[in-house]
Amino acid sequence: MCRFLAYSGEPVFLSDLVCAPAHSLVHQSLHADEGKTETNGDGFGIGWYAERPEPGVYRDISPAWSDENLVNLCGQVRARTFFAHVRASTGTATARANCHPFVHGRHLFMHNGQIGGYHRIKRRLEALIPDALYDHRRGSTDSEAIFLLALANGLAQDPVGAMARTLKTVRGLMDEAAICEPVRFTALLTDGETLTAFRWACDGRPPSLYFREGPGGIVVVSEPIDGCREGWQVVPKGATLRARHGTATIVEVPERARAAA
After folding, report:
1. pTM of the full predicted structure?
2. Is residue 2 annotated as part of the catalytic site, yes or no?
């Protein structure tokens, strides 16, 4: 499983959260505490919003702990909203196109989890993505496929409902293929203004997700970046967190999503 971090609030340097803390995301790329694997060395990515409405993105296949360009870039970029992700592949290739976050227009998306038996439904799932969106597919991950299909299902207008419809479709394909492995979906979405964090799983075992509100903004993480739990709140299993202008709200999963979450 992967590890990630998101921030929304007053502009800060990316290095303040991605690199500097004792248990920073760069540290977690080599020594994660709560992930399925301790090492997340199959690439990394950052995406940020600054002066333009569309985000900037930098991704690479090298491990985050060994990339000097990542450290230098984070020390120079100041942003009001940003995502950072270190990858542990669940079966797809280690390639730049498979590194998170994924971008489409103003939206950034990153995922920690899995579609069980993805290789058995990959072709049918991709066939559901409209041509206009499929032209933006660059990699081979289940995460990117979910993102593009969710965009087709109205993600920009209704993030929670669109994602619920998307995962219901995924579960249907899995049932047809007699796949017993779970869908685990801890993910983050933003348009630069509103941040949506999902912690869903069909087996009740979604990957970890925490958040912390401060005077300047909100931080959402796979695991606390300061190495302790004090001051961090857990996003409940099966819930969704919505944040705007540094204020967070926990939203219960709608009834139509319960089959996936």
Report:
1. 0.94
2. yes
